[in-house]
Amino acid sequence: MDGLISIDRSAKPIIAVVFYSTYGHIGALAESVIKGAEATGVTVKPYFIEETLPKEVLEKMYAGGSLSPKYPLATPEALKEADGIILGAPTRYGRVPAQVSALFDRTGGLWATGGLVGKFVSMFTSTAGQHSGHETTVTTTFPFFAHHGLVYVPIGYSNPLVGEIESVQGGSPYGASTVAASDGHLQPTANDLAVAEHQGKYFSNFVATFVKGKNAA
Question: Where is the Flavodoxin-like domain (predicted)?
């Protein structure tokens, strides 16, 4: 009918996996998150958050892989397109690094227009130690989520591996994480990767259920 907006009820939900990784730990978790999300049948769009440090500085940090990302660079437009966003970032003193904050600072237009209001978000991270920001890195990002009207989806203890205590590993009710050690020599454990894959599935199914119900209205 004239004047009515046509809704494509067959459209798949879009899940954006948006992450920054300095040494590859977050990148490894991201691949498991992507795998889990894809298993649900949603459209998964991975994005890398642009590096802001110069090559010379990264070389002194024994890093630099972030200058040649595997995926397209994240933009505010990519965030707006998604029904759900899974954000991945290492911790810097219990909060996200400057690279992620730089992306946040570019979303003023989305804030002004309400472009992210009502969308869903979840988060995964990497820290140096067992008590180095697995939860605070998420909670200190909540102001950004709140100002944009994003709805946070935690995983709780929906996977028993979140509460595993037999070995050093990451993970919390807020989302997947890993322990990298202060020199970065540790890599995500099998449990870390399993929780990350679970988060991708859990979040994507959550968002898909909402989108299906919204389109049926």
Answer: 15-203
